[in-house]
Each structure stands twice: as structure tokens, then as C-alpha cells.
Write a structure and sequence with these properties.
The complex is a heterotrimer. A two-stranded antiparallel ribbon of chain A has the order 1-2. Chain A is mainly α. Chain A has one domain (22-234, 246-523): Cytochrome c oxidase-like, subunit I domain (Cytochrome C Oxidase, Chain A, Up-down Bundle), CATH 1.20.210.10. Helix content of chain A is 61%, strand content 1%. Chain B is α+β, with helices and mostly antiparallel strands. Chain B has helices spanning 2-21, 35-65, 81-109, 246-254, 259-262; strands at residues 117-124, 127-132, 166-168, 172-175, 180-186, 191-195, 200-204, 210-214, 220-226, 238-244. The longest helix of chain B is centred in the N-terminal third of the chain and has 31 residues, at 35-65. The relative contact order of chain B is 0.14. Chain C has a single domain (2-47, 54-178), classed as Cytochrome c oxidase, subunit III, four-helix bundle (Four Helix Bundle (Hemerythrin (Met), subunit A)). In chain C, helix 1 (16-43) packs parallel to helix 5 and helix 2 packs antiparallel against helix 5. Classes of the chains: A mainly alpha, B alpha+beta, C mainly alpha. Chains A and B meet through helix 3, strand 1, helix 8, helix 9 and helix 10 of A and helix 1, helix 2, helix 3, strand 7 and strand 9 of B.
Chain lengths: 576, 265, 179
Amino acid sequence: MSHHDHHQSFWTRYIFSQDHKVIAIQYTVTALFIGLVGLVLSWLMRLQLGFPGEFRFLNPGSYYQILTQHGMIMIVYLLTAILLGGFGNYLIPLMIGARDMAFPFLNMLSYWVYLLSVIVLVAAFFVPGGPTGAGWTLYPPLSALPNAAPGSGWGIKLMLVSLVIFIASATMGGLNYVTTVLQCRTKGMTLMRMPLSVWGIFIGAAMALLAFPALFVGGVMLLLDNLLGTSFFIPAVTLFGQQLPREGGNPLLFQHLFWYFGHPEVYVVILPAMGIASELIATHSRKPIFGYKAMVIAMAAIAVIGFLVWAHHMFVSGMNPYFGFFFAVSTLIIAIPSAVKVYNWLLTLWRGKIQFNTPMLFGIGWISTFIIGGLTGLPLGNVIADVPLHDTYFVVGHFHLVMGVAALMAIFGGIYHWFPKVTGRMFNETLGKLHFWVTFVGAYMIFFPMFLLGILGVPRRYFDFEALQYLPTQTAGLNIVITIAALIVGAAQVVFLVNLIWSAVRGRRAESNPWHATTLEWQTPTTPPPHGNWGAETPTVYRWAYDYSVPGAERDFIPQNVPATPTVPAGTARTV
Amino acid sequence: MPVFASVVLVLIVVGALALVASGIWWFTPLASNWNEIDGALLITLGVIGIAFVTLNLFLAYLILRYRAREQERAQFIPDNPKIEKILIGITALGIIILLAPGLFAYSRFISPPRDAMIVEVVGEQWRWTYRYAGPDGKLGRAHPKLISPKNPFGVDIADPAAQDDILSYTELHLPVNRPVLLHIRSKDVIHSFFIPHFRAKMDAVPGMVTHYWFVPTRAGKFQAVCAELCGIGHHRMHSPVIVESLEKFQEWLAKQPTVAATVKP
Amino acid sequence: MIANHGSNGYREFITPGRVGLWLFLAVATMIFAALISAYVVRMGSSDWHSLPKPGLLWVNTAILLVSSAALEWARMSERRGNARSARVSFIAGAVLSALFLFGQIWAWFVLHKLGYFLDTNPSSSFFYLVTAVHGLHLLGGLIVAAATVRSSERFQLFVTYWHFLTVVWLVLFTLIVLT
């Protein structure tokens, strides 16, 4: 691994690069692109729900296909990819003082395999029958049987193949992230001196490694059921009056495999987001993160308990009802470490010196949306309260706020925060703030009313609500309001992209440490950092990541690579 | 900006509470014995509502009070184990308050009374059909491999208990104030049998029989809907649920076809 | 690369490659654990029929065990500095591994001839599935080994990986024989 890269061609430097920073940008750009596709799909759904019947190209079949693709794109191909592949790649080596990932070639491969999975996913829009409409949870028999759902031919096969490819990519990436954190920390960078971003990505990546195999196995078995007529998950069924030659399969087996992956997956996304949010909040309130050790322990606790809660998605699935007691208790226990994190972010602001720049606004937005999103998980985890709420709009509101909006708050805040380091230029603050306020207020307008619809008992994944006889007449109006808010919030994301592109080319030149941050990535000799990151020598770390506003210090931050104050000989006065 | 930010946060809290207080979208009027479910859910919503309001208002206060001012410096407060312990204690207490009644209600929800009237619910793309036990009080055996156009429930007509079973292809009728235990099946994909006014819901899974029970406490016309994505007709998969006096119910039941009269091998 | 992991207190034994391998073994363990739990759950269904077990499977198992032993011998020879013995036993191990894979495919043909296809019964579905997943792990190992085995460290890791797959096969084989 040399950092003398003068002889690299354009191709090895920017396309088939093994530099973690280039790979991070490739991941981020690809994920944002596919996320934009997911956003447009959500617009289409909202158009149908706000103005049912007005748009001819939307029919139940295409609606359920759009719904399925939207869910899968956002959860797997946007959130997981951008947080681990994008932020993980960029931040881990820089924040721990390494020159690159432990396995740079594998890292490059991981991105190209990810890109392939995205291409296969998108290809489903162009094949006969279109993409699958079985819902992102892909429950068999609906997903496995011919013509049970739209896209049951090519669509579902491409979806499963794409997922298997994605899992291969995520595994290559995950091995890299975890190994790099364990092995490649620079001198003095002990585990308990690592910034919380690295902790979040590290634990999230480790969870991904252990969770994705269940989806892999479930996906391969589902593919065989769909393609080659096996009966892993398919019992004796009669479809449209026809007996199918299947028997004995167990649909709940797939649900267990799926959620054994699916729930840890939530934390694969949320833990890195928590880490990034911690960085935003501490840096821009000029205060050490409150209770660093508690924050690390809380993340580790969430990760461990996170593997023991999966069946709370299955309270009314027909599984043994006695499981409900266990999974309700384990689910609500996980609320405690999550709450600790919220308190600690709030207490970080307490007696701070809060800077109201765009990254910090997103940090504040993260706290608020994580609070509402997290809290609304409690009724869903409290097994009996889940019985009326399960598969209603309450669930839609809950996971969109906690996993969608909150995670995106951290992602957007993170992109603004590290933009000066990545590009060497500043973004436009005014556009950034506009982006924040529209997104933040709009997200509440879109998703808060959904809790009330859920309490009323409106099922989710409905093409329209005409058949429901218990809806108040104002519901149509409410759906129009939600749709308009969704369109406006979507438009604000265009502002974000314009800001990114314009500022990357034309933005004001950034200082190397514009936020006066302590962590190592801001201490690189040049900005943006070159291949190899550091000059002749990697930095040495002398302190934890959060020495902000240390009493007596000259400035209100002390970078991690600044040596400790020399011990004052006994008898002399302290003059720090 | 800090003033604006905290005002927006306060307005979000106020707006959210106002939308709840408007009462337009809230529980449907309960029509079953499951006021325990409503109780557990209301306690949970109460606890999280308090937390939501308190934490957001505290956030609004913090950003207003501790906005950057020139001369001031942030205080170096890396930790405070005492505060953390107190907060963990309060959180744990809140969780126990909402979980304990929830688990009690749940244990009742999964223990149907012995004298409950058994009704079978069969889902298929995209309708609900029903089978009553008939005078012998026992549902006849059924098997998915026996399903055919002439035997849509897959009833085993060799089973004597099946002969008097009564079939309804459109509506679910129930006598008021009598416990009902549903046996839920599906012929094809997974559905979910949900009656919002009764609060209860359970997936209909092919290859297995799932259950739940309730007591309809109010005569009237309600609606069963499907709550698990089941294909392009999912949003149109619903069925009338009619709760009436025992006499009226029996009158209706007598008019419905029996297995012996309609199902041929 | 060297500059990446200087003085962070680890013994020289724990290299990034070794950590990466052990992590991958954890991933593979999760894959096989998921497969085995699905197998056990599905087995309980009434439509499960026991599969005829071709005697060939016993031969294959023996071959895999011997290949693992040969590779271990190669690893020990390499540590003792006996390059010739290391090379001979490595080649023996690799050839035996290839033979095992060939034997597994042959076992598929045997079952196929007996009328047991992928979709005949869940027992045959699972048989084809678990042998395929295990075989692909072996094949992947052989390909990576062919590319990187010149490095002594990689060779050591390769042998560890092989032992892992041998143990996994013993578990899978026991499950297949018992059901």
C-alpha cells in the first residue's frame, strides 16, 4: 500500500480505484441515485392515495410493484449501502488514522458487486411482467406462486438474484470494515478513544455480517420454490381454483428467516446513523458527547438484544402465541439503551454552545424524529397493543420516521458535515437550511397523521380506501395534504442534489478543519486527503475523540493527535 | 435561527396534539369485550405521548437556551452517572407501566373460553368465507387437497361431523354477547382477518389453522378487512360482519346451505 | 499495508488476513446454521420422506477427511521448513478435495437415477441444497487458494478454512444420515 500514486492512470484512480475515499464516493453517488428512484416511486404512490383514480397508469398491479420496489430500494440499496459503503468507507480509515482499508482490493470488488446488484434490481422494471409486487417482505406463498402477485415471473427472480448479489457485496464490505477497525488503528487509537461514528459503523457492520446470511438462505430457498418447484415454504394451496402440486411447506419458516435478518437490519442502518448523529451533535455544540462509555455500551447492548427480538414482527402471524411474551419483553428492553442514547444527545446540548449550521440542524432533526419514531415502536412491541395496530398505517408511520426520516437526517447531516473534507469546498448554507426545514417539517406532516389512521384501523398497502366503511369523510382531505407534503419534501431533495453538485464544482474553498473538530479526519495534511491519507507518517493519538471546551485549554477543541499536556512537576502551579 | 427552530419544535408538538385532540381519527367505537386491548394501548400511547411532548419541549428549550453566544464557552461535562441512573430508572418504570397490563391482556387474548362458539374463517384471493359447526357443535375435518369447485372449503364429507356444517360465502353473522372462537385458514396466500371494531386480528396462513376469540358486545353491522398484502385485490378483500340477537342469528343460520346439501364428492 | 497495523498491541499472529478469515467463518457458520435450522423445522412436516443414502457419501466423507489431514500435514511441514513435503501433501490435499467435489456431483447423479429430483420431496430438496452450498464454499476456497497460496500466511488460512468446511460437512452428513 503506497501513498505515492502519481503513476496511476485515470482508470485506476477514479474508476477501478482501491482508495477507500473514491470507493466511498462511488457508493454514495450510486446509493443517492437509486434513492432518487425510490423517491419518485413514493411520489407515484402518494399521487394514487391523494388523488385516487386520477392517474391512469396507476392500477393495483403497478401500485403494488411500486410499493415493493420502493421499500426494498430504500432499506437495502439506499440506507444500508450509503451508511456502510459510503460513510463506512470514507470515515473508518480516516477516523482511526489508517492509510486505507485492510483489504483494498476486496473493497473495490464490494462496490462493483453492489453496482451489479443495483443494475439487476433496476432491470426488473424492463422485463416482461415488471418487478415483483409481493411487498418488500417477500412473504411466500404470495411471492413464490405463479400469478399470485404481479411480477411473479421475471420480477421476483431478479429481485432475489439482486439480493443475493447485494449480500455478497455487503459481506465483502463488512469483512473489511470490521477487520480494519480491529487491526488498522493507528498508534494510540484504543477502542475507547474511537469516535462514536466508527463505533456505530463497526457494530452495524458486524451485525450485517451475522444477519444477512439468514436472508441469503431464505432468498435462495424462495428462489428454488419459485423457479424449480420445491416446497420449502409452500404448503398445499389452491390458486384461482386450481390445486398446485405442492405440499407440506411452512410459510412461517420464511418469515423467521426473513426477520432474523430483517430486524437486525434495522440496527445495521440505525447504529451508524446514531454514530454520525453523535458526531454532529458533539462537534456543533462544542461539547464532549455526554456519557461516551454509556453510548458505546448502549450500542453494543442494542446489537446483542437486536438479535433476540425478530419475532415481534410476527405477533399475529400464527406462530406459537406464547412466543409473544418473550419477544414483547425483549423488544421493550431494547427501548432502554435506545432511550439512554436520546438522553445523552439531549444532555450533550445542555450547557453547550450550539452552532446553528446545516449539519447541526440535521442533528437536531435526528433527535426529534428518532424520538417520535422510536417511541411509536413501543405500542408495536407491546404484543397486545400490536394486535390492532399490526399492518396498519401506524406501522408505516413508525418505521418511516425511525428508519427512514431519522436515518436520512443523520445521512444528510453527515454529508453536509464531511462535504468540506471530501470535496475541499463548502456547500451553500442557505440551500442547506432550506433543505432541512422543508424535509423536517414535511416529514412530520407526512407521517404523523399516519399514526392516527393506524389507530383508526386503516390497513397498510391498500391501493385505495374506498372499500373501508369506517373512515371519517375528512380522510380523503388528509390524504391530499399528505400527498402534497410528500411532493414538496421530494422537491427539497432536488435542492439538496443541486447544492451538492454545484458546491462540489463552484463552492467556496474550505479550510482543512472548518468545524474545529477534534477527530483525525480533520487533521489530514491536505484537503481532500490524498490516496494514503497521511503524509510520511500516520498520526499518533493521545486523547479521546471529544475534547471540546476543555477548561483551561487555549481553544475550544483539542484534536486527538495533540499530545497530552506535559505533566507539571510537583510543587509548581498548574498553568494550563 | 435558534428562536425559529425552537418555535417550530413547539409548533410541531402543538400541531400533533391538536390533530389528536380533534378526535377525527381515533379508535372506532369498540364493539367487543376487548376493552383490555384498548386499555393497554391507551396506557402505552399515554406513556409515549408524555415522553414525546417532554423530550421535544426539552429539546426546544435547550436549543434556545444554549444557542451560541460570543463570550460564553460550552461547559465540559463528559459524564454524570447519577443523572444517567435516574433517567434509566424512569425509563424502566415507564416500560413496566405499559408492559405489565399489556402482558396480562395478552394472556387473556390467547386463552379462549371453553364454551366459545367455533366459526371457521377461510380466506382466498380475494374474499372471506365462513363455516359454522351446525347442530352438533363440531366442525368437520377439512384438508386443502380436497378443495375443488364443488367443495370450496375442502371439507372431508366422510366425516360425520361435517354433514351438518353450515356455509356462508358472503357474510359473517354472530350472536351478540356470546364468546366466539375463530379458526382461520387460507386457501392460497397469507391474508389477515381484521375487524377494527373488535380490535382483533390474525393472519390466515395456508397449511395451518390460526385462532383468536372475542365476544361481540354490540349489535350492528361491522366490517372485516384483509390486513396482509395478498395480491392486486388486497384492498378490496372485505366482508360484512353482522352482530345480532341470538334469535335473529339462528333464523339467518337456518337459511344457509349445509355441507350435506351442497358439497358433492 | 504494513504501515496500517503498527504497534497496536497485537501479537504478530493476529494479522488482518486471519481476522478477516475468522469473520468469514462466522458468516459461513450463520449460513449453515440457518440452513440447518430450516432443515430441522421443515423435517417435522408430515410430507417428509427419508431419502435413500448412496453408499458413495461415506466414501466422499472419507476422502474429505483425508484431504483435510493431508493439508494439515502440509501446514506442519511448511512450519518445519520442509518445503518438498509441504508441496506434495498440499497437492495431495487439493486433488482429494477435487475428488470429493466430483464424488458429490456423482452422488447427485445416483439420486437422480433413483428418481429423487430437487422437487421430489423436501428431503431431496434439502439434500441438493445443502450439498450445493457446501460444495460452492469448497469450490470458492479452491479458486482463491489457487490464486493466493504462494503466500505462506494465506496458505495457513486456507488450511484453517478447509478444516472448517470438513467439520461443516460432518455436521451436514450426520443430519442427512439421521433423517
